[in-house]
Write a structure and sequence with these properties.
Two copies of one chain form a homodimer.
Chain A lengths: L8 E9 L2 E3 L1 H13 L2 H7 L4 H14 L5 E4 L7 E4 L1 H31 L8
Antiparallel strand pairs in A: 1-2, 3-4
Amino acid sequence: MSDPAAPPRYRIRIVFGPEEMIGPGKAELLERIANTGSIAAAGREMGMSYKRAWQLVETLNAMFREPLVRSSRGGARGGGAVVTEAGQAVLAEYRALETRAESAGAPHVRRLQAMMREGPEET
Amino acid sequence: MSDPAAPPRYRIRIVFGPEEMIGPGKAELLERIANTGSIAAAGREMGMSYKRAWQLVETLNAMFREPLVRSSRGGARGGGAVVTEAGQAVLAEYRALETRAESAGAPHVRRLQAMMREGPEET
C-alpha cells in the first residue's frame, strides 16, 4: 500500500527524561495554536480532546524555563492562546532538528527502500 | 525528574507507507531475536505478548522483499528463529541512520536543553 512517489516521513521524538519529551505531536500542536490562537481549536484540528490538548500544553510549559504558550480563559473573545517567543524558539529548533536528521538519514532510508517490496500491494 | 547526566534519547520512526514503518520497537525485537534465537523469548524480554511479537515479525517480513526472520515452529528444540542476512542488513541500516541523525541533531538538542528547566524536579 505504499505510494512509491511519496517520500518516507520521519517521526522523531527526543526523550530528555521520563516526563520530558518532544516529538511530532507537540510540535504540531504548537504550530496549530500559533495559527488558530486557541488551544481548543488546535486540539480539535488534531482530533484531540480539549483536556488532552491542555495537558500537553501544561507539560510543555512545565518542561521549559519560560512558558511556551500563554493563555487566558474566558474574556470577551472566549479566551485565547499565544505561542511565546520561547515557544517559537523551541518549535524552530525541533523543525531544524528534523530537517538535519532527515538529510543525514537519507542514504540509509534509500537503502532500506531498495530492500522493500515494490509497488502497491493488494490486500 | 530528568537526569542531567543522562543524554537525551532519540526515538526515530520512518514511515514508508500506512502499514510500513520501522522504528525502535521493531529494531529492538530483531536484535533480541538474533540474541535469543526465539521470537517468543525476544517478545517476552520486551514485555510483549507472544501474539504481538509474531505480528511484528510478520509485518516486517511482508514489508521487505526477503524475509528478515525465519522461524520454525515446533521441532525438537520447540522451534527457533533466526535473523536472516536481509534482517541483519535492515537492522544495520536503521542503527546507522539513528547514529547519523543523532549527531546531525545534536546542536539543536543542546539548544533545546539550554531552554529547559534545570535539575531534578520534585513531584
